[in-house]
């Protein structure tokens, strides 16, 4: 099993033993998580792909891997094209590919704990067109051939105190109970890990970069709940925090408990609960209501305590990033600095205050051509030195107990080309357009996406990812349901309290990448004479933009005024936390654009 070719061969042999003609391998876990524990990294183990989203299909004579536009370059670098064909989502899908490639009359296996009910229906329909069959497996065949598969984490749960959540777990469960009553339901199944962490005010260490614990929950209409989690992960402090209203069970008992809900009306989320959950409820005689997880929207709409905590986390995170950018301005020109050394330094600066719990995702530290790989992750094999007259893209974030951060800056190492300045300024104009947007209540994120892309489109350019994603409160750095995107979501109405990223970009394959990202808070906007309730954004991230890449001749007066006002906020928030040369550097980086010698011609 030393090579990915060996692993692919072994899986085919295992499928043949099980009389299966194929198998689907998604990158997720039993909770439909984006980021998963090491034990669930089946796609990476099988193929070598290190991205955070993708799927694969293995047939007897061919195999395909499916990724979206963020990973177009990365998948080709990490997965051997001799054995895998590269498929682009959403241009195609696993179901559509199977309809074309599955053998007639074949049996294609899937793990019902790793797919949604909707996916199963679509795949079954696609295969039926070929006379083929979709077959649920009792145990995952990848696990059967993975000799050193890691065990699930045994880390203990920890309490997230009410002074940071702004609402007790009992009050949150009472809200869910009210929702159940309104829906005519007896209970709701919670299977998304961040929903459980938020609803019970607990956090964990079971998934790298995301402070959640492996658990399931059923919340009842009397505001009590059953929490299914490995017993050795619970200590007396957590038990006392949960109180008598939460009954504790072994996580292994969850499926049988679903089968015991005979006669109950149970709500489950078809997007977030796996097919096996629906199958167990149906087998047990429960009456099913397909509804969105009742935690999703309250979790997305941050309360005043969560917002205050987030702002505090952003202030210290902005200082760490500014120290890093100053350090980079001194060290990079000396030569020899590589991507891993740079990201290690940034993490060390974030950790200096002692409040950093983890990174919020693996830092994207991309020099030159590596910056064009949207979700690039540096390794000893791929790392590049930050070379003169090139661009360096760093996308990073921290997990603090009071907030989750995510920020991207693109830096010129040496003298940038005019093309680089043009592309950066177009990205910046789109970034500013989102930050300045004013829109009626009820507007979807997808309706705003064009604001970020318009200046790139004018030059025949674009980027293959969304413009903004939701962010959790010391939870997942990618949180729904809100997004700014025209594909893969973006149809959720934006509401006050929702936090999103604002991150347009541009990527020139083989040369450089540009992305500028701040987090923004959706807020009410007071407009004199307005006939509608209007909303806008408050920028939460504070770190200077790259002056050397801004072509002020491409900016209008309103854009210049916004950037100058933003830089003044950076000085006010971050400046008091810096001293010495770093403080001098920050003052220089945040002076008004046209007063600092920048030319508009």
UniProtKB/TrEMBL annotation:
Instruction: Give the residues annotated as coiled coil.
Output: none
The domain of life is: Bacteria
Q: Tell me the leader sequence span.
A: none
List the InterPro entries hit by this protein, alphabetically: Creatin/AminoP/Spt16_N, Creatinase/aminopeptidase-like, Creatinase_N, Pept_M24, Pept_M24B, Peptidase_M24_C, X-Pro_aminopeptidase_P
Q: Key word Metal-binding present in the record?
A: yes
Pfam family of the protein (one): Peptidase_M24
Q: Which UniProt keywords apply?
A: Aminopeptidase, Hydrolase, Metal-binding, Protease
Q: Which segments constitute the Peptidase M24 C-terminal domain?
A: 533-593
Q: What GO cellular-component annotations does this UniProt entry give?
A: cytoplasm
Family per record: Belongs to the peptidase M24B family.
Q: What is this protein called?
A: Xaa-Pro aminopeptidase
């Amino acid at each position: 099993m030393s090579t990915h070719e060996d692993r692919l061969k072994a899986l085919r042999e295992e499928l043949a033993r099980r009389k299966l003609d194929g198998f689907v391998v998604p990158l997720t876990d039993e909770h439909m998580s984006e980021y998963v524990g090491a034990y669930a990294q089946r796609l990476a183990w099988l193929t070598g792909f290190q991205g955070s989203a993708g799927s694969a299909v293995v047939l007897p004579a061919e195999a395909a891997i499916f990724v979206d536009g963020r990973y177009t370059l990365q998948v080709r670098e990490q997965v051997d094209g001799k054995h895998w064909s590269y498929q682009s989502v959403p241009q195609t899908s696993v179901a559509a590919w199977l309809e074309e490639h599955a053998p007639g009359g074949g049996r294609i296996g899937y793990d019902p704990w790793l797919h949604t009910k909707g996916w199963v229906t679509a795949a079954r329909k696609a295969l039926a067109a070929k006379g083929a069959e979709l077959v649920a497996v009792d145990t995952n065949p990848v696990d059967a051939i993975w000799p050193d598969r890691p065990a699930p984490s045994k880390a203990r749960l920890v309490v997230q105190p009410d002074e940071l959540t702004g609402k007790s777990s009992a009050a949150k469960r009472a809200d869910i109970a009210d929702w159940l009553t309104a829906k005519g339901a007896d209970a709701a199944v919670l299977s998304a890990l961040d929903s459980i962490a938020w609803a019970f005010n607990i956090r964990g260490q079971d998934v790298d970069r995301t402070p959640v614990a492996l658990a399931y929950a059923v919340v009842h209409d009397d505001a009590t709940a059953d929490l299914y989690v490995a017993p050795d992960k619970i200590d007396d402090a957590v038990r006392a925090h949960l109180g008598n209203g939460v009954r504790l069970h072994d996580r292994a008992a969850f499926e049988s408990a679903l089968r015991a809900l005979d006669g109950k009306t149970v709500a489950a989320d078809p997007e977030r609960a796996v097919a096996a959950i629906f199958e167990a409820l149906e087998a047990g005689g429960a009456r099913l209501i397909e509804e969105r997880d009742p935690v999703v929207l309250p979790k997305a709409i941050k309360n005043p305590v969560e917002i205050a905590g987030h702002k505090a986390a952003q202030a210290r995170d902005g200082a760490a990033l500014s120290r890093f950018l100053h350090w980079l301005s001194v060290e990079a020109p000396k030569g020899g600095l590589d991507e891993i050394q740079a990201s290690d330094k940034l993490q060390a600066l974030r950790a200096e205050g002692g409040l950093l719990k983890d990174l919020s995702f693996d830092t994207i530290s991309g020099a030159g051509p590596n910056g064009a790989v949207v979700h690039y992750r540096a390794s000893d094999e791929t790392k590049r030195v930050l070379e003169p007259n090139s661009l360096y893209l760093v996308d990073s974030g921290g997990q603090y107990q009071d907030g989750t951060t995510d920020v991207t800056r693109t830096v010129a190492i040496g003298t940038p080309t005019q093309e680089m300045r043009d592309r950066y300024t177009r990205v910046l104009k789109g970034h500013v357009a989102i930050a300045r947007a004013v829109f009626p209540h009820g507007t979807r994120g997808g309706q705003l996406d064009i604001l970020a892309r318009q200046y790139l489109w004018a030059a025949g350019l674009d980027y293959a990812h969304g413009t903004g994603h939701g962010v959790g409160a010391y939870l997942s750095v990618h949180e729904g349901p809100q997004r700014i995107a025209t594909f893969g979501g973006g149809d959720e109405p934006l509401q006050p309290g929702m936090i999103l990223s604002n991150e347009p970009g541009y990527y020139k394959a083989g040369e450089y990448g540009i992305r500028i990202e701040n987090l923004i808070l959706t807020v009410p906007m007071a407009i004199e004479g307005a006939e509608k309730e209007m909303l806008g954004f408050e920028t939460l991230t504070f770190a200077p933009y790259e002056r050397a890449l801004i072509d002020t001749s491409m900016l209008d007066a309103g854009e210049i005024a916004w950037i100058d006002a933003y830089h003044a906020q950076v000085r006010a928030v971050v400046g008091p936390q810096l001293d010495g040369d770093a403080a001098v550097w920050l003052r220089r980086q945040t002076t008004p654009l046209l007063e600092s010698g920048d030319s508009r011609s």
